[in-house]
Design a protein that fits this description.
alpha/beta; Metallo-beta-lactamase, Chain A; six-stranded mixed β-sheet
């Protein structure tokens, strides 16, 4: 698996390109912004992005989705529980002084336990409500893409619409912390970490 990270947007979001070079298939996790770096990476790797996978529906993770879908010809997938947030994207962008966006559309919805087979990539969907009701993480080859559920020594905020700290804590303790300690965690913001590190040093939960 080839992994490329891109940082974009006002809130310095992480986007991740996962590619299976042998099959020429790839996925993009989260969609903050259509950047030249993403287009260059896709062209240089000579891969086709099959899906854009959304960890949740907050504006900073989806505001580039319309442009990315058009540029990459990819299908967008999200948990149906976060449609209410995605559909009302401009209620959030206005709080940050950003221009209104056209709410994106999605081709498929994600469910707990789904396995997405993209080339030789086997992507497992883990639902992790708490930051939002429809938050999900993606587990691929010992790597967890955690969105805003789990950060390095921190967790996602729960004071916005759909947030619930009890649910977030349960998602992390009962699901993510059951993964092997060596599982690498790639969050939606900030540096990577591991499950073992968070079990030892994350004091918030």
């Amino acid at each position: 698996m080839i992994l490329k990270q891109f940082i974009a947007g006002q809130l310095e979001n992480n986007m991740y390109l996962l590619a299976d070079k042998q099959s020429g298939s790839a996925v993009l996790i989260d969609a903050t912004e259509l950047t030249p770096e993403i287009i260059s990476a896709v062209k240089n790797l000579e891969v086709k992005v099959e899906y854009i996978l959304l960890t949740h529906g907050h504006f900073d993770h989806i505001m580039g989705l319309n442009d990315l879908k058009k540029a990459l010809g990819a299908k967008a997938l999200i948990s149906k529980a976060d449609l209410v947030i995605s559909d009302n994207i401009n209620e959030f962008t206005r709080l940050f002084g950003l221009e209104d966006s056209i709410p994106p559309t999605y081709e498929k919805y994600l469910h707990d336990g789904d396995i997405l087979n993209v080339g030789d990539l086997n992507i497992k969907v883990i639902t992790t409500p708490g930051h939002t009701e429809g938050g999900v993480c993606f587990l691929v080859d010992g790597k967890l893409f955690s969105g805003d559920t789990l950060f390095r020594e921190s967790v996602g905020r729960t004071d916005l619409f759909g947030g619930n700290f009890e649910k977030l804590s349960s998602s992390i303790k009962d699901k993510l912390f059951k993964l092997p300690d060596e599982t690498q965690v790639f969050p939606g913001h900030g540096p990577m970490t591991t499950i073992g590190h968070e079990k030892k040093f994350n004091e918030i939960i």
